[in-house]
Protein: N-acetylglucosamine kinase
Amino acid sequence: MIISFDIGGSAIKGGVAHSEADITPLGRRPTPKDDFAAFVDTLRAIIAETGEQPTRLAFSIAGVVDPDTQRLTCANIPCIHGRNLAADLEAELGLPVLIANDADCFAMAEADLGAGRGHRIVLGAILGTGVGGGVVADGRLINAAGGFAGEWGHGPALASHAGNPPVAIPAFPCGCGQTGCVDTVGGARGLERLHKTLHEIDLSSQEIIDDWLKAEAKAARTIDVFVDLVASPLALTVNITGATIVPVGGGLSNVEELLAELDKAVRQRILRKFDRPLVVRSECRVEPGLIGAALLGLKAEAAETTV
Structure:
C-alpha cells in the first residue's frame, strides 16, 4: 500500500493507493509552513488515519528537486525549502520516500488514467495561476530524478509582437528571475496583465473570459493576443518532445472555448499534422496531484519488486 500526499501552501492532502484502480483520497490538514517538526507530525497523523502500514510514501509538491543535489526549491513552504526532503522524511518516518513536482504528477495522472491513455508521449500543460508542465514518455516521468523538463512556461520565449494586427508586448519580469516568460502572460494572472496592458482596464480573468464569450471587443482582442503568445511556445514544445496529446489542467482549462482556440493555433504551428484535437481538457479533474504521486509510488514499488 502506498500513501500519497499533495503538499500545498495551505493544505496537505493524503491518499491511499493499493493499485492504479484503487486510489482513495483522505482528508486534508493545514500545512505547517515554518515548523518542520509540525510538518512531519502532520504526515504521521495522516499515515495513522489509514490504519494500515504503507510500504512507501509519494509526494506531489509545488516545487522542484535539484537532480544533482536532491534539494527542494519550494519557496512557499519555508520549513521544507532547501532540504533534501526525501532523505529527511525517510529518516523521520522510516519509509521510502519519493518526491515529485505537482505538474509532473499531473502529467503522470493524465498519461496513465486520463486524456493521455494510449499515447507514448504525453505533455501535461498547466494553465492555472501561472504556466507549468511535465512530460511522460513510455509510461515514465522524464523528471524521475528531479529537474525542469516540461516547464514550457519559463525562459525568455515571449514574442515581442502578437495578435492580428500585431501589437507590441513588453517583456514582463517573471518570478523565476527572467523576463519575457510565457508564465507572465499565459495563466490567469497573465491574462489579467495582458488586458491591463492592452486596454488600461483591470478585470479578473473570469470577467475577461465572460466578456469574450459575449463577443465584447476589448476582451476579444486580449484573447486573440493571449492565444497567439501562448500557442507558439507550446507548439515548439510539442515539436521538441514529440507529444501526441497535450492534456491541460488549471483554472483556464475549464474554458473549453479557449482550449479550442489554443488547440487550433497550436496545430497550425507544429510540424506533425493532426486531424483531431491535440490540446485537450484534462480528464483527471479531482486530485491529479494525489493520483500522479500514487502512480509514481506504485511504479517505484513495482520496479523494486521485479529487480
About this structure: The two ends are 19 Å apart (CA to CA).
